[in-house]
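hey so i finaly got around to running the thing on N-acetyltransferase domain-containing protein from Romanomermis culicivorax. pasting the sequence first so u can double check i didnt mess up the copy paste, my clipboard has been acting weird all day
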Amino acid sequence: MIYPATEKKKQVIHDIDWEYQIEINKQAELKKKKSSTMPTQPAIPPKFQMKLALIIARTILPLDEEKGRTAIAKEQNIADTSYTLSCDQKSSIIHEIMSNLNNQNATYNNWPVAKKKLILVRKADDSDFEKLIQWTNNPVDDWALTLADFQVWRKSFAERASFLAAVDQKTLQTVGFCAGVKHGRDMGFIGMYYVLGEYRGCGVGNLLWKNVTEYLRGRNLCLASVPSMIAKYRDRNSFKCSENQRIKIACGLPKNFHHIWNMERSFDSTNHQNEDDDRIFKIAKIDEKTINEIFKYDFSVCGVERKAWCRNWLMNHRHGRSLVAVEKSSQRSNENEKKKAGPKIFGFGQIREVGRDVLKIGPLYADDVDVARQLLINLLAQFPDVDRKDVHTSFAANDQKTEKILNELGFEILSDYFEILMYTKRDVNFDRTKMFFFADSEVNFV
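ok and heres what it spat out for the 3d tokens, dont ask me to read them lol
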């Protein structure tokens, strides 16, 4: 949406012109009382010169932010000199400004510095996140988010996260969003960095960025970047590309799913696997008996504690369905061993609905390909019409074990789209042997 600024600018020009006329009248009165040594064309007062320079810089010139700062720095020099404009020159400039205002293409973007001053950065709420969902629900961005995601993140990370919204105080419209999450002792993840198109180039993104990086100050910053943004992040906080971490995307209809499902052993919706087959694990729903072991398994993969996130994302997400590969009871030697420790975990994963015809899988961690394959097949089976849905997931580039499973199920791997993990101090490490699908890359690094 384009925001017309014509009336606002006209009012500013009217105020300046009115002030100028007052000064002219004052000087005319002085001219009558004094000798004829007054200049034929009265000098424009420095105060007016300052305002006139501002409006010229912000209205006529198509300035970007850097040039705008340079122009404004020169304004004081203009005001401090004895430079004067004739009435004809002044009228010509005002006419040019007014012509520009009457142009149907004149927008708020002609006032980058003024627009930035109207922005308030505050703590984000549900309505702000709903705006972000609307902005990114398009074929170009395609973030595939839901309000339930935000509510789980906010509850899980609590005081260890800063979810910020940029708001135009004139229109009260949300125009930008960014999140910073503290992981472990020294990692800080930046995600969901987005500014509405009409407000880009005005410094709104910088305001959000400065607030988030200040919140994460001193930590090893990490983010997932598309290729077009790598250079920009390198200039900001000296981000470096991870040497061994590029994120690829798989999507589309898993067209071979039902054929593979029908060839598998019989699974029911509760137990998912018979106890008498030759596997040492079964696929089951996550419950209180397995969640504590999942905490440990998750830590073994990512190296940071995410207990609150694991519980809320895997058990309390209202659009999510989660499964765990757990050791069969027949594999436990005796009752005493069962009491000493919780059930052995071989992997876990989640699938969630992010739209009527869109599903998203992540995370999926497993000991090996067989466990990961069984988890993935059973996750897809949570939706009987899955072969008519668009399924999204992300995985590490050059991860042949994961690509093999995706190809078997008939997923399309996007070869021309990828993201790169970037960091400021140390490269990000995690157990790549167990990592098949990334979690929610908006707030997590793996």
